[in-house]
């Protein structure tokens, strides 16, 4: 195996294990026919090129990545409602198979770009043949609306390298405000939506039983 692959292999393990655990939370709710605060879970190991770029931009020495780059292993939890985000944060904080070492709350402190999400930096122990190893990982928790905005902005950022034309910048800020409004409106009708979703899933269950 190459040097980079060897370095990243334990991070692959973190992502694989954490994805299973976060999906397990979702399953426990849906098994009971309850609203799950987790809609879906994704994860990735940061691509080598992105690691190199970030290390250059932030002045992180390549021989100190393990300590200073905390999002090499990244998990993303997407939720229906803003309230779900806080429930997921609490569920993660109450686990004893990981330690939350930092909260980055970009909900109450929105980024200048318009980015909103709740980030948790965790320390996660994996079991290797050489023994236990603790690695950092970042869990980003956001609503579907926040995810939509961040995904679009991320691709545009890639294209324009952060130097957005004024018109696009304005539209992105407006789109972020619209996503915010959508989340607020959905929260207001949350109970109605949840009842409807439960009726719908009961109905589907019955059909599948036939
Ligand atoms: P990737 O892997 O391509 O997503 P900083 O770089 O200072 O903003 P820091 O200290 O590395 O952030 O950590 P932080 O603030 O927890 O967030 C880093 C990650 O959050 C980013 O990863 C993005 O995934 C996401 N993020 C933060 N700000 C924005 C934003 O304005 N727009 C979008 N779309 N995503 C954002 P990377 O490193 O960009 O890489």
TrEMBL record:
CDD domains listed in its UniProt record: NT_Rel-Spo_like
Coiled coil: 172-199
SMART domains, per database record: RelA_SpoT
Pathway: Purine metabolism; ppGpp biosynthesis; ppGpp from GTP: step 1/2
Pfam families given in the database record: RelA_SpoT (PF04607)
Example GO BP: guanosine tetraphosphate biosynthetic process
Domain RelA/SpoT residue range list: 43-164
InterPro entries, A to Z: GTP_Pyrophosphokinase, NT_sf, RelA_SpoT
Gene3D superfamilies linked: Beta Polymerase, domain 2 (3.30.460.10), Nucleotidyltransferase (1.10.287.860)
Subunit composition and interactions: Homotetramer.
UniProt record similarity statement: Belongs to the RelA/SpoT family.
UniProt-recorded name of the protein: GTP pyrophosphokinase family protein
């Amino acid at each position: 195996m190459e040097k980079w692959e060897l370095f990243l292999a334990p991070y692959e393990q973190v992502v694989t294990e954490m994805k299973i655990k976060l999906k397990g939370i979702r399953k426990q709710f849906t098994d009971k026919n309850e609203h799950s605060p987790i809609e879906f879970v994704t994860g990735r190991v940061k691509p080598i090129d992105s690691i190199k770029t970030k290390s250059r931009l932030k002045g992180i020495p390549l021989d100190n990545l393990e300590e200073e780059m905390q999002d090499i292993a990244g998990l993303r939890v997407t939720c229906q409602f803003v309230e779900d985000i806080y429930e997921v944060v609490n569920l993660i904080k109450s686990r004893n198979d990981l330690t939350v070492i930092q909260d980055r709350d970009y909900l109450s402190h929105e980024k200048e770009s318009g980015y909103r999400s709740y980030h948790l930096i965790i320390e996660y122990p994996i079991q290797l043949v050489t023994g236990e190893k603790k690695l950092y990982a970042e869990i980003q928790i956001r609503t579907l609306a926040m995810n939509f905005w961040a995904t679009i902005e991320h691709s545009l950022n890639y294209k324009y390298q952060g130097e957005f034309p004024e018109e696009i910048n304005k539209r992105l800020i407006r789109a972020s405000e619209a996503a915010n409004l959508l989340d607020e409106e959905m929260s207001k009708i949350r109970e109605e939506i949840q009842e409807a979703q439960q009726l719908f899933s009961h109905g589907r269950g019955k059909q599948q039983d036939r």
